[in-house]
C-alpha cells in the first residue's frame, strides 16, 4: 500500500508502507467482522487465530511469534491422548527399558488409560477428566496401589509431553493423587 504524506498543504512524496518480514505472520479482516492472525510454523504449515478486534489480533501475533521463538508453538492441536501415549510407548520408552517393564507400562496404558481418556485431544485434557478416571477406577474396585500406579504413569508421560512442547503444562499437577496404602 502507498501512503501520501502532507506537509503544510504540500504533498511531498509517496512512500510505501512497511511490510512484515517473510514468515513473520499476517493479520487481516474478514467480511464476517473477525480478525485473523496467521502464524507460520517451523514445518511450513500455518496456524490461524480468529479474534474480535484488530488490537487482539496484533497482540496474538506478537505472542505467537514469541512462543514460536521459544519453541512452544506447535501444530499438535489434533493429536489425541491415545496417539501421544502409543507413540511415547513405542519411540521413547521401548528402546530404553527391559521388555517386562515395557509390557507392564503397555498394559496399564491400554487397559486403564486409553479406554477412558484416549479419544480426548491431548491439548484439551483437563484435571477434571483425570480425576474422573481415578474415580472410575475406584468404582471398579481397583486397589489404591493400582490407581496410584496409573497416576504415576500419567504424570510421567505428560511430563514428557510438556518437554516435547505438545502441551503447555502437566494437568496431573492439578490433580490430587490417590492416597498411598499404608505399609508400602
From TrEMBL:
<dbReference type="InterPro" id="IPR010998">
    <property type="entry name" value="Integrase_recombinase_N"/>
</dbReference>
<dbReference type="InterPro" id="IPR004107">
    <property type="entry name" value="Integrase_SAM-like_N"/>
</dbReference>
<dbReference type="GO" id="GO:0003677">
    <property type="term" value="F:DNA binding"/>
</dbReference>
<dbReference type="GO" id="GO:0015074">
    <property type="term" value="P:DNA integration"/>
</dbReference>
<dbReference type="InterPro" id="IPR011010">
    <property type="entry name" value="DNA_brk_join_enz"/>
</dbReference>
<keyword id="KW-0238">DNA-binding</keyword>
<protein>
    <recommendedName>
        <fullName>Integrase SAM-like N-terminal domain-containing protein</fullName>
    </recommendedName>
</protein>
<dbReference type="Pfam" id="PF14659">
    <property type="entry name" value="Phage_int_SAM_3"/>
</dbReference>
<feature type="domain" description="Integrase SAM-like N-terminal">
    <location>
        <begin position="80"/>
        <end position="134"/>
    </location>
</feature>
Amino acid at each position: 500500500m502507498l501512503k501520501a504524506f502532507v506537509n503544510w498543504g504540500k504533498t511531498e512524496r509517496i512512500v510505501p508502507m512497511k511490510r512484515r518480514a517473510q514468515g513473520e505472520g499476517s493479520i487481516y479482516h474478514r467480511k464476517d467482522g473477525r480478525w485473523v492472525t496467521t502464524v507460520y510454523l517451523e514445518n511450513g504449515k500455518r496456524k490461524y487465530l480468529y479474534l474480535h478486534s484488530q488490537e487482539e489480533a496484533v497482540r496474538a501475533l506478537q505472542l505467537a511469534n514469541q512462543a514460536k521463538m521459544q519453541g512452544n508453538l506447535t501444530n499438535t492441536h489434533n493429536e489425541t491422548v491415545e496417539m501421544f501415549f502409543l507413540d511415547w510407548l513405542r519411540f521413547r520408552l521401548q528402546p530404553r527399558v527391559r521388555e517386562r517393564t515395557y509390557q507392564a507400562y503397555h498394559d496399564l496404558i491400554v487397559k486403564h488409560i486409553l479406554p477412558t481418556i484416549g479419544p480426548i485431544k491431548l491439548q484439551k485434557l483437563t484435571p477434571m477428566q483425570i480425576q474422573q478416571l481415578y474415580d472410575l477406577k475406584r468404582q471398579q474396585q481397583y486397589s489404591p496401589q493400582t490407581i496410584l500406579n496409573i497416576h504415576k504413569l500419567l504424570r510421567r508421560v505428560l511430563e514428557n509431553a510438556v518437554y516435547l512442547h505438545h502441551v503447555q503444562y502437566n494437568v496431573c499437577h492439578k490433580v490430587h493423587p490417590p492416597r498411598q496404602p499404608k505399609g508400602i
